[in-house]
Design brief:
2 domains, 5 helices, 76% helix, 0% strand, signal
């Protein structure tokens, strides 16, 4: 009788473990489907971030203005980085359009807080990043 109980508990534990593993696998599969196809490697992103950080430092923004600038840029860069999430199912053309819309919104918002010289500097700096993104995606510039 004890042997039957041990077998039953062992079998029950095995089935429970297998079903739990299967649920985890299904969840991991769903997460993998929605995974972002990153445009840059970690090293490329780190180098780009450092380059941009140094260029923004060259703008010599006052602390409050720098905080506002960073907040706005980070908000839009985060949104831009999520455009190509697999769960959104955007076509390349839609990704291109949505990226350009976010780019324009970011620049409109930044133009309200920066001087003309600072804004031109921002456009030059972020313009280089935009060209890099366009080259990676093989996008053509959309004329408005």
């Amino acid at each position: 009788m004890i042997f039957k109980k041990i077998i039953f508990i062992g079998l029950f534990s095995s089935v429970f473990s297998l079903s739990f593993a299967q649920v985890k696998t299904l969840k991991e599969t769903e997460m993998q489907k929605a995974k972002v196809d990153t445009l840059y490697t970690l090293d490329e992103r780190a180098n780009m971030h450092q380059w941009f950080y140094n260029r923004v430092n060259d703008m010599q923004l006052k602390e409050d203005l720098r905080d506002d600038y960073d907040r706005i840029v980070n908000k839009y860069v985060f949104q831009m980085s999520r455009i190509n999430d697999a769960d959104k199912n955007y076509t390349r053309h839609e990704i291109h359009e949505k990226y350009d819309i976010l780019f324009k919104k970011m620049n409109i918002e930044l133009k309200t807080i920066l001087t003309t010289d600072q804004y031109v500097n921002h456009l030059e700096n972020f313009g280089l990043i935009q060209r890099s993104i366009y080259n990676k995606w093989n996008f053509e510039y959309i004329k408005n």
